[in-house]
Each structure stands twice: as structure tokens, then as C-alpha cells.
Amino acid sequence: MSALFELNPRNAITIGLLVILALIPLYAALTGNTFVMTLFTRVLILAMAAVSLNLIMGYGGMVSFGHAAYLGLGGYAVGILAKEGIGSGFIQWPMAIAVAALFALVVGALSLRTRGVYFIMITLAFAQMVYYVAIGLDRYGGDDGLTIYKRSQFGGFIDLSNKTLFYYLCFALLLASIYLVSRMVNSPFGLAIQGARSNERRMRAIGFPVFRYKLVCFVIAGALCGLAGALLADHTNFISPAMMFWTRSGDLMVMVVLGGLATPFGPLIGTVTYLLLEEALSRVTEYPGLFLGPTLLLVAIYLHGGIAGLFERRAP
Amino acid sequence: MIRPLIAGTAALALVAGPAMVQQASAQQKTIKIGFISTFSGPAAAIGNDMRNSFELGLDHLGRKLGGLPVEVVYEDDEIKPEVGVQKTQKLIESDHVDFIVGYIWSNVLLASLKPVVDSKTMTVVTNAGASQLAGEMCSPYVFSTSWNNDQTPAAIGTYMNQKGVKTAFLMGPNYAAGKDMLNGVQTTFKGQIVGQELTRWPDQLDFSAELSKARAAKPDAIFAFYPGGAGVQFITQYAQSGLKGQIPLYTAFTIDDLSLPRLKDLAVGVPGAQEWVNDLPNDVNKKFVADFKAKYKTTPSFYGAQTYDAVALINSAVTAVKGDLSNKEAMRKEMEKADFKSVRGNFRFGNNHIPIQNFYLQDADKTADGNYALHTVSLIVKDDQDKFHDKCPMK
Amino acid sequence: MLYFIEQLLNGVQLGMLLFLLAAGLTLIFGIMDLVNLAHGSLYMLGAYFAATFAALTGSFVLGAILALAATFVSGVALEVIAIRPLYGRSHLDHVLGTFGLLLFFNELVRLVWGPAGMTLSLPSEMLTAVQIIPGVYYPAYRLVIIAATLAVAALLYILVMRTRLGMLIRAGASNREMVGALGVNIKLLYTLVFGLGAALAGFAGLMQAPILTVQIGMGENILILAFVVIIIGGIGSIRGAFVAAIIVGLIDTIGRAFLPDLLRAVLNTNTALTLAPALSSMSIYMLMAGILVFRPEGLFPAASK
Fold first, then answer.
1. How many other C-beta atoms are found inside a 10 Å radius of the C-beta of residue B252?
2. Which of A160, A214, A293, C210 could join C103 via S-S bond, C-beta 3.0 to 4.6 A?
3. Measuring CA to CA, which residue among C46, C26, C44 is closest to residue C36?
4. Which residues 189-208 of chain B have a CB within 8 Å of chain A?
5. Does C213 contact B at CB distance below 8 Å?
6. pLDDT per position as a tens digit, C251-265
7. Residues 140 to 179 of B: which have CB under 8 A from any A CB?
8. pLDDT per residue over A68-95, tens digit each?
9. Could you give the 3-state DSSP secondary structure of residue B204?
10. Residue A22: which residues within 8 A CB-CB, separation 6 or more?
């Protein structure tokens, strides 16, 4: 964490970004452009999901291709409770976290015994299963999705239908999750996880209960992403199985890698870059994919360590 | 060299974000219309037909609605509810449109209703007929120039009774409209339903399993609803499986002027119900079809006809309020009057803003010049109103 | 019973299409250790090329042959330009890079052919049903698909088992480093394998085009099924891909056909109708998860390490 106080180019960009993000609602109020705030709220929420993925994928080396499932589980927890008449956020959000954590526990227990590409595929399989269950839920819209008429209610504490308040809440939660992940990975527990990423056999030989540590890590990442899913459902007022389709997990992976694996603010940088690039390109050209696609390929080929690594001046 | 380039792009994106400003139009100098339809995939043909009809309608009015110049923003929903709601929000929040027109698919419409109603944006739905919209979710700001999903299949149900059909097998796609259609047939059909199948939508285009089931059930007739490109696949496979000629097929929205050129002979003898056929004998329709053919070299479909009516509807209301779009109450009242000439002849709304109209039986046959065309066979039901209007709280 | 036979054939037919995709994917994964998310794009290109060439030449068969050649060339070009730098990198880099290619190809197709998709019509002789057993009618074209794919599978078998190239492929699938050490032109081998995979994918794309669809993004749904197939079958094993593809095709089809009725006995109609296709899709993933937990190498493992 002491690196945060060095004024190198990467930290400068990070601080600049945080300042811009903090000022977005002010900008929106001054220009009357609410769309910008809607766009950036989405960025903040997905950045939180990317932070949770970075925990297991970047620091832990567990490449999960099914992370979008937790977004969906969190979102559906909120949506289903809302449809059944339970509108209180005090019930909805903890449920979202609990359901996501439970699913992560099951998936992790079964999948963490596998390695490499098999781990990737089995996490994908579980996510697709959840996707198909959601399609089968006729009462909750099935494939057509479900509209959520009221955002989570928190009594008198905070009114989520106020867009500015909601924005700052998401911002606060994002910063909190970055802090949480940062503390985790720098603790003995986290250092063991990172050690396991490079040499698991050695860690186990030293005496660390690697499997248990990885499982805990996996569950925490799932829970965090579940909360992001709840926020997403409240933000868009709409949930659908499409939230969990495998290409969305791919999007999350791209955002994490783009920003820089195993860096605290990498996921945020990656999410902002990816989503803004997408949005900017679609306004500039009729064929955004023609530029976005090769950009991703070039990043994969030339940029080890993503965009955050761009400023490291390390040899490739 | 690459690194700075990518870094530059990233920085540009970071800066460009806040720079994406859309200024709201201060005064009502122009009317901005947001048009949501499908412009990708096989269903793009429908979206293009709707867009062409809308443009033709605007041309006929000199590109002005109520005397004010018009600007149209077209958006593609990709047949996905989650995309539809996002594009709807963009039209409302970023483009600040005065009207929203379109919506082909019932599920996309239902997903997009909340932002439309919350923002009190006047909306004319030119195809989707979700029964919730006709019932408990009706809104003072939403009007339909199409129908409700149960009306057309109910007309076919009536027709099947007339033809003495005793047992039927129903097939449709598993989304809001598909379920509505299958339920709609059962509101009027007096015979027995020996089986029904809902297929995965929109990616399941292989109906062999379901057609086999239909064959095994040995019904007097099969009813099917498969809009757009799926209709072409279904009718083709119906013929391929050898069922054509063995078990008669009745349809709704499966064979239309867009799919007919591809189906050709396969469509002959497969009747369907529709509230508009291209040969309806009124002046407005004759001009519409003739001018459409002259400009676009093809026959318009019912999707287009419904969209063409939306232009006239909006024009009548904007003219009546003398361009004062901010007075939503007055706009609503004028829209409800439906004081315009429709390609369907007479046009009036029920209490739920869904039209009360006739339904005809249509079939295809070969014309003198070797092409295929749809024509009106008979009138099935006159001044039909949907069965959900009682559930709508508006009076 | 007759209905069951029809469904069996449908399952086999779906399985054959999956096999074409999976065969290429498993070779590319097994030999080059490359996770290729752009494989579905080659499937899409095959269909688009076929639709275009068939319209130009007026013949379905001629269009198909030209499309196969074009897809092979596209695959080779893609490998040389974009795929080569990814060899030896982490799977994550593969995912990122080939995901970018997937986006690129979707957009490229939209640029060249427009957003509306295309149609590929069958010659009218094929628009009939054949009575294979008294009382059981089966569409002629679907029999053609099964027959053609079996022919391709046989050719593939001969290639892999009886030719020098095939020997190199088998060797590369079981021990990559050794093949390089033996002085074989690895670069050329990789390019040929990738091209072969592309041609197989393109063949699958154009074969399904007349009955299903030719549209942007059409590879995304089936690509994931192909990955499931190669995991179940065993990475690097064509035999495994064949068996697994048939299994997956059968589960999906039989499930879709019989599950609704089974469920309807227990649940109400609307719920059963919506739940059944979901369950049958889920069962494929449950099978894969089971294999990964109990026998991760797959049914017919190719790697000897």
C-alpha cells in the first residue's frame, strides 16, 4: 500500500481517474446530462465485479470463466424478492450476498480440485447451469426477463431512487471493496494465496492448507460479486438471464486483464477503459468492433500485465 | 510504439467519457422521434419495412408533423429485452426524444415499459401486443396502432370452428407473445387441444422434434405462430416433413408480405388471420401500397402498415395541440380521439389505447405475372376488442 | 416408438455438426494448447461464404466447395497474422486475444454482408421427406448432413491414422515438445492444423445454414457446446470428440423431446413447457461437470503426459 504514495505515472492516472469519477454527478447536474451518470454508475458497479474477479484470478491464479453467474445470482435475489413483495434492501442485499456466497462455496468445493483449462471449463459449466435455470424460471420472466419496479428500500436511511445518492453509494462500495481486497491480499492469508498461484506444491509442503484458503478466497469473491449484482439489478430495474451468459463472463475477464492483473486499481482502470472505449467507438463509427477487437488482441500480445503494466517499464 | 498508442486511446476514452454531451433541445423547434425496432439478424427485414413505412408516412406529410420539422433516431433492439430497455433509456435520457415509436417484440416492449412510463414519454407501439399492456399495465402515455396478442389467434380459433376442426395441436415460441398467441386461440376454439409446444426463442429454428410430435398426435389441424425469419423456417420444415397436404396448418403472423417471396408455393393454402391485408379497399391504403411499391419495389407488410398509421396518429395529435408537446394531458386526449384516416379504414381506440378493429382471413396465391401475393379471403370478425380491456384502470 | 427413432436421428444429426466443430477445436487445443474463442467465427464465415457463392453460381454444391476453400484460406491467414503470437502464452491471454477476434469478426461480417443475415436455400429436390422405415418420415436434407459428416469423419480418420501428417498430428497431441525436438517444421504443422480446423468449422456452418440460420454471432451458442464436447471427449482426441458429440447431441435432442411430457406429469403445463428446454440444456453441463470431477482427462484422453 505504500506504493500508493509514490507519484509515478500509474498512480497519477489512478488519482486523476478517482477525481473525475467523484465529480461526475456535479458535471451531470451542471449540464443536465443524466445519461453520463447512468453510464458511469454502470461502470462503477461492473468495476466492483471486476475487483472481485481480480481477487481470485489476478492474485489467486484461479481463472474463473463463470463469474457473471454471481452478478446474476445477486440480481435475481433482488428481483425475485421484489416480485414476491419483499422490497426492503435490508433483506434483499444480504440475500444477494448469501446466495452468491453459497453458490461459490459449492462451485469452489467441486472445482478447486481441478487445474488449468479444466478449472476454466468447470466454472463455465456451473455458470451456464445457472443461466439455464434462470431461463426456466417462468414465474420470474424466464428468457424475457423481469422488471423491478422499485429499487431496494432502506427505510429512511437512503433513497436509492435518487440517482446522485445511488451513484455515490456505488462509488463508496467500490472503494470499500478495493480496500478490502487490498487488505486481504497483503495479509498472511493473501500472501499464501499469491504464493500458491506461482507454486502450489511448495506452499502445501510448507504447511499451508491451500485448498481451504483458496475456497475462502473464492467464496469472498463470489459474495462481493453478488453484491455488485444486487446493485446492477437496482440500477437497471431489470434482470434477465442474459446477465449470466458466458460472453458476459468473458467481458469481466477482459476488463480485469486489460487493467492489469493483481493490482489494486487495475480492475477499475480496465473497466473504465473497456466500457468507455465501447461507448466512444459506437458514437464515432458504425463498426466499433473493428477497432475494439484488434485492440484487445494487441493488448494480449504486447501488454503483459495489462494497462497498469504499461507504466511499469518492465521488460516484456 | 504500440504502448503509447494504446495508452493514448485509453486516455482518450477516459477523457471522452465526460465529453459525450447531448444538449437537450430548449424550445420545440423540431419534433424528435425515437424509433426502436430490429435492424440486425433475420428479423432486420421487419425493422427495415417499418422504417421504410415510417419514412414514407413522413414524406406524405412533407417531413413535418403538425407543421414542425421532424428528426428521427433509429435504434436496434437486437430482439433482446435487455438491449431494448437500454436503447429505450438512451433515447429518453441521452437523445431527449418527444415520442417513441416501434417495438416489434412483446418481451422487449414489456422490459422497456418502465422507463417510458416513468419519464412520461408519449409512445406509439406499432407491433408488440403484450396482453399486460392491454390490461393492468396500460398507461396514459402508451398507444398501440397494432392489436393485442390474443385478438389475431382468437380470430383463427373462430375460423377453425367455422371449418369444423375438432382437434388441434398448437405451436409457438417461448416468449411473451408466443404464450399469448397460444392462449388466444383457446379463448375461441371450441374443439380439443391435443397438444401444445413452446420452442426456445429466438435461437431455436429447428422444429423437427415438435413437428414430429404434432404428427404423432394426429390432430385435425395445427396452429402455429412464428414471426419473422422463424416463420420461413417453420413453413419450410412443415413442407419438408411431409405434413403439408396431410394435416392443415393455420397461422398468425407467420406468413406475411416479407416472407412470401421466399416461401412462394409453400405459403399457398396456409391461411392466416390479420387486421390488415394489402388489398383492403380504402383510398388511404391504396395510396400507401402504391407509393410504397413505387419507392421500395416491394409490397409493404402489416408491420409497415401499422407503422404508417403511427405517423398519421401522431400528426393528428400534434396538429390539434398546435405543437405544444409539453402539455401531456392535452396530447393524450388528442391521441385518444384517433382523428386520422387509417389504412384499415375506420380506426378507434378502446379504453386501454388498443384499437377496436376487424380481422380478416388472408391466403397467398400466384398472380398473373408469376409472383405471389396475399389477398383477403373473407372477414372473420368485425369490430373486435381485446379481452383484457376490463383490467385496464383507465376509463 | 417411431417418434423416438426420429428424435434419435435428430440427435445424431446435431451430434455430427457438433463433431465437426469439436474436431477442429480439440486438435487446436491439443496440439497448440490454444484456447480459441474465435472458432465460432470460422463457423460463421463458412455459412456466409456458402450463401454468397451459392447465390453467385446458382448451385448449392458449388457454393459449398468454394466456401470450404475460402474458409480454409481464411483460417490459414488468421493463424499467420493473429494467432501465431499467442502460442506459448497463458490461457488467459488466449481468452483475451481470441475474444477480441470474435468481436472483430462479428463486426467484419456486418460490414461486408450487412446486418440482416443471409439465406441459403436448398435445391427443391431436397425439400422432401424420405421414408426410411415404413411410417417414419425423415427430411432428406438431414440425412444428407449425417451422411456427409460421416464421410468427413472417415476422411479425417484416414488422414490422422494413415498419413504422415496424421502421425505428426497424433504425436503433437500427445507430446508437443518432442515433435519440435525431432526437427519437424512445427510452424507449418500448426498452420495446417489450424486451417484444417477452420475448414471443418466452416463445413459445419454451411451444412446447417439451409435449416437453421446465417447471421452475425451465430457461432456463440454452439461454440460453448463444442468446448463441452471436447472436455467430455478428452482434449486432443478426435475419437473422443466423435463419441462425446453424439452423446451431447442425443442428450440435447432427446431431452428437448421427452422432458416436457415427463415434467407435465408432475408440474403444471406452462411451468413444464418453460422448464423442460432449460433442464435439457442444463443436463449437458452437469455431465461435463461430472466428468471434470471424476475423470478430468475425458473419455478418450490423447495426452500421454
1. 27
2. A293
3. C26
4. 200-201
5. yes
6. 888 887 788 777 877
7. 174-176
8. 999 999 999 999 999 999 989 899 999 9
9. coil
10. A171
